[in-house]
Amino acid sequence: MFDIALVGCGGMMPLPNRYLSSLLLRFEGRMVLIDCGEGTQVSAKQVGWGFKTIDCICLTHFHADHVAGLPGLLLSIGHSGRDEPLTIVGPVGVAHIVRSLCVIAPEIPFPLNFVEIPAGGMKDFKIPLTNFILGAHPAHHNCPCFAFRIDIGRLGKFDPDAARALNIPVNFWGKLQKGETLEHNGQILTPDMVMSAPRRGLSVSYCTDSRPPRGLPAFIQNSDLFVCEGHYGDEERLPKARAYKHMIFSEAAELARKGGVGELWLTHFSPAMPNPGDYLKNARKIFQNTHIGHDRKTTTLNFQED
Questions:
Q1: Which domains, ranges and CATH numbers included, belong to the chain?
Q2: pLDDT in tens, 228-252
Q3: Which residues are annotated as catalytic?
Q4: CA dist., res. 92 & res. 86, Å (int)
Q5: pLDDT per residue over 121-151, tens digit each?
Q6: DSSP of 20-76, one letter per residue?
């Protein structure tokens, strides 16, 4: 099961009923957090998944409403007893930004490893300690910014008849299913000898603080869930969205439609929009399976039945 929690859905500044945008993903007990604005740790604590197994924090960009919560969150992770390294992924300069913020949190008891995203994005980055595969695509904001895609792969089905025909000992079967290559009686045994082709996995894509990026529909293609900013819901706000490099609901919905995603959650709402649901129709007329995000909105994605 692949669990997703929208920890916060606000943009620019936290409100009493709306924390700043961040997304928490959990698979097989390991977690990845995307963005970490002020107050993220408070809402994440309410989600109830703990902090110790957050193995990676991905930062879309360095504006305060996406990074100012890092010192407190990292201290909370430390207080949970973590001593394993934690990876932080972000645009060029991510190490400098995080270390500067953490001047006020000097007692983080675990190593931080930094991964800089090249200007053109990245593909197939295996996040350490997890089964998450990360991709990043350039967004269109007024500073370096990236959309993210998280994929959970799924191996093919094991064929016991093929294993018996090859006289592979039963105690080797589990290792081959896990992708290991083995040697037995001078013969090299590879997983493809007893496994079918990989099956469809699960994927979540995330884009915020951006005009609709060129190439994004292909990047998010067939995602089970697309979490995208709808900074404004009113069509009349389009000129302002263009000026400040944000999106309105209908633009997010058009990306979801072109990308062939399963479901769209809107997030990163302007503080000037207290009731985003008033504008949901503007998205649903383009992409029906659109939902308004709210703090701690959760879902679980499951692999399709064979």
A1: 2-155+198-301 (3.60.15.10), 156-197 (no CATH)
A2: 999 999 999 999 999 999 999 999 9
A3: 65
A4: 18
A5: 999 999 999 999 999 999 999 999 999 999 9
A6: BPEEEEEETTEEEEE---TTHHHHHHHHTS-STTEEEEE-S---HHHHTTHHHHHHH
